[in-house]
């Protein structure tokens, strides 16, 4: 699952990165400018000193320093320290040069003097050390400002997105409890006011649509229950008729069970249509729920010689919505029975998975990824008379709504296994009364 960053975090990071980039660019720019200014200052100092020295040497030749034959010139030092220059200095052109001597960086000025050259050595190491300390202090201050920028960025971003966060809380509250629309007067920013107006309009439209859907669902429920009640009443009256034979009574009982099953399905679908039905979960005895789901299929399973095996302890319970679980089990049993001509249908539970296995015809590899698609049929001609291809789609939809993971494993001619994740109840969770769902 992808981890989403908060708007405040993103705003703070962008603001911090931009500000730090500007601070670093400014510090590097100041450093480069200072280094260039340093070189210009050193060059100016050397030029002024060399002009003064040459003038003094020309006016009084007794002031000339010793002549170095290796360098073919006179060598003097600005700080009165004797310096032995390497012979490679003789190859340097006229001008000011930086060389490393005894691990120190020194400046050497070379100019023509009479028929020879004049070399003058300058040691600016003390000045350069002070300059480096100033630059280091500048970079340290830049680092402190960067840390301060991050702190300020998170503070300012909190102020910028506080109303967005407040709007999110109101929207969450609005979605969980009935309340009045969000008041745009609580917000200052024009964009947020527009967003509140748009959301309120969308909320009004959704509320009206939900109300229409509830009204339609109620009407459909009433219309379905009326004929089902008539069927149930007719079955009860026919059962009291002594002239009806045993075979007819078996058919009447089958019709009566089908009517009961239809009524349960109608009630379950109405339950699922409710917005908060996801929270209507209780502790359900799993073996009993499977037994109730198998009852309407008893004749069909017996006619095909299919043996059902419920290998689950009677006291084992799972957390589920009883009506939703009844629909899921009924559709899975119906789908398994359609693809079987004998063998067995087994139910086992290994925490937290309910496993339903059959010995039917199985599912082809190319069809397996699509069995939960609505209206999909692996063999539309063969099974067109048996269903419309929406049973497993309903199972998938219910599983997604209640957070039940579902897995399907199948091999042609070897049967199919469906695994449904049904967690065990937490201690103290209510268990429905027997016979009620």
Which structural class do the helices and strands define? alpha+beta
Biggest β-sheet: strands ordered side by side in the sheet = 1-2-5-4-3
Shape descriptor: elongated
- Output mean pLDDT: 78
Share in helix? 40-55%
Summarize the biggest pleated sheet.
Answer: 5 strands, mixed
- Specify the number of helices: 8
**Oligomeric form of this entry?**
single chain
End-to-end C-alpha gap = 35 Å
Please give the number of β-strands. 12
Low-confidence stretches: 380-389, 433-437
Which sequence of SSEs, written as H and E, runs from N to C? HEEEEEHHHEHHEEHEEHEE
Quote the beta fraction: 15-25%
Cα-based radius of gyration, to the nearest Å: 46 Å
Task: Describe the 3D structure.
By secondary structure, the protein is α+β, with helices and mostly antiparallel strands. It has helices at 7-59, 125-176, 190-239, 246-273, 286-294, 298-303, 322-338, 391-402, and strands at 67-68, 73-77, 95-101, 104-113, 116-122, 282-285, 307-311, 317-320, 344-350, 353-358, 406-411, 415-421. Helix 3 packs antiparallel against helix 4, helix 4 packs across helix 7 and helix 7 packs antiparallel against helix 8. Residues 380-389 and 433-437 have low confidence and may be disordered.
């Amino acid at each position: 699952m992808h981890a989403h960053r908060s708007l405040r975090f993103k705003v703070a990071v962008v603001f911090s990165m931009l500000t730090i980039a500007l601070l670093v660019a400014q510090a590097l720019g100041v450093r480069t400018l200072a280094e260039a200014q340093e070189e210009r200052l050193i060059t100016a100092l050397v030029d002024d000193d060399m002009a003064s020295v040459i003038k003094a040497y020309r006016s009084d030749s007794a002031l000339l320093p010793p002549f170095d034959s290796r360098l073919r010139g006179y060598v003097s030092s600005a700080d009165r320290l004797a310096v032995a220059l390497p012979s490679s200095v003789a190859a340097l052109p006229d001008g000011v040069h930086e060389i490393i001597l005894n691990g120190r960086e020194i400046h050497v000025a070379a100019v023509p003097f009479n028929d020879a050259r004049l070399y003058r050595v300058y040691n600016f190491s003390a000045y350069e050390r002070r300059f480096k300390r100033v630059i280091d202090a500048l970079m340290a201050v830049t680092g402190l400002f960067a840390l301060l920028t991050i702190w300020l960025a998170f503070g300012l971003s909190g102020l910028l997105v506080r109303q967005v966060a407040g709007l999110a809380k109101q929207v969450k509250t609005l979605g969980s409890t009935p309340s009045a629309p969000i008041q745009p007067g609580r917000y200052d920013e024009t964009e947020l006011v527009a967003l509140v107006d748009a959301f309120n309009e969308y909320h009004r439209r959704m509320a009206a649509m939900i109300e229409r859907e509830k009204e339609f669902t109620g009407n459909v429920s009433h219309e379905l229950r009326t004929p089902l009640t008539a069927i149930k009443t007719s079955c009860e009256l026919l059962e009291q008729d002594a002239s009806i034979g045993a075979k007819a009574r078996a058919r009447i009982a089958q019709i009566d069970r089908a009517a009961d099953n239809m009524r349960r399905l109608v009630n379950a679908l109405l339950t699922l249509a409710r917005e908060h039905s996801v929270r209507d979960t209780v502790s359900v005895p799993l073996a009993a729920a499977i037994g109730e789901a198998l009852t309407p299929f008893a004749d069909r399973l017996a006619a095909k010689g299919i043996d059902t095996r419920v290998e689950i302890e009677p006291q084992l319970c799972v957390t589920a919505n009883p009506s939703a679980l009844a629909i899921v089990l009924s559709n899975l049993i119906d789908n398994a029975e359609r693809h079987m001509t004998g063998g067995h249908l087994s139910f086992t539970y290994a925490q937290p998975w309910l496993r339903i296995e059959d010995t039917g015809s199985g599912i082809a590899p190319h069809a397996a990824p699509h069995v939960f698609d609505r209206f999909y049929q692996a063999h539309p001609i063969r099974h067109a008379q048996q269903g419309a291809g929406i049973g497993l789609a309903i199972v998938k939809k219910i599983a997604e709504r209640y957070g039940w993971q579902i897995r399907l494993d199948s091999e042609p001619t070897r049967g199919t296994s469906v695994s449904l994740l049904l967690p065990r109840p937490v201690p103290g969770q209510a268990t429905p009364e027997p016979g009620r769902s």
